[in-house]
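Question (not urgent): is this output format expected?
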Amino acid sequence: APPQSAGGHGRHPPSHARSFGRRLASWRLERQHLSRDAAAGSLETVATDLIGVQAQVLSSAALSFAIRTRGGRLGDAQEAQGARRIVRGWGMRGTLHLWAADDYPLVVAALSRRETWRRPVWFRYFGVTEAEMERLIETIGDILGDGIPRTRAALAAEIGERLGPKQRQNLGSSWGTYLKPAAMRGLLCQAMGEGNTVTFTRPDVWIGRWREVDPDEAMATLLRRFLRAYGPSTVNEIGRWWGDRISSFKPLLEALGGEI
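Got this back:
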């Protein structure tokens, strides 16, 4: 909200504050494709510019795409996911998003810097060791490398055969806690399931094209995009969006210097 005028509580904000507020709203509406639609069917453009479309609830993601594309329909997102033009996976704050498939390697590279699970307090809380998590991540990637999508139960069963009942129980009972580290390493994403059934696969196999991106360059790219779509912003706001400590990205932000 624009600041109060210097005259006291309850007065209208000064004209320069109102003007800034209008310009700020106009900027964000345009940059987020709400006042200027993306080209018809251009879901990849929307997903890239918004740095993913939140997809905890797929019907909400479908609406987000539909209102941002010319002639958009609620079924467009599902069709694009089925055609592997967009992919569903965990991202910032451990939240599911729909990403442009060609952009996903860059997103994964940036997320690989964000291993918030690699902390003593995390290991104590979830009752696992760093070595156990590394082996679990590697095994998930190995299993899914054959390109056959698996339900959580099927994946947990195969993990149990290789790593024992403890990891089978962990994988089968969590809300993605043990899957997200593999996703942010680029070894797991969601494939198209039938109905409400969720299946998992490996993104490089599912998408069929992959490229390696330097993690710091990827994060710098996402910081630029964030400010283009959601700015002006403070460092703390970026931290809340990214879901990690400010120290994890502040040096990269400062390195952009006058560019921002």
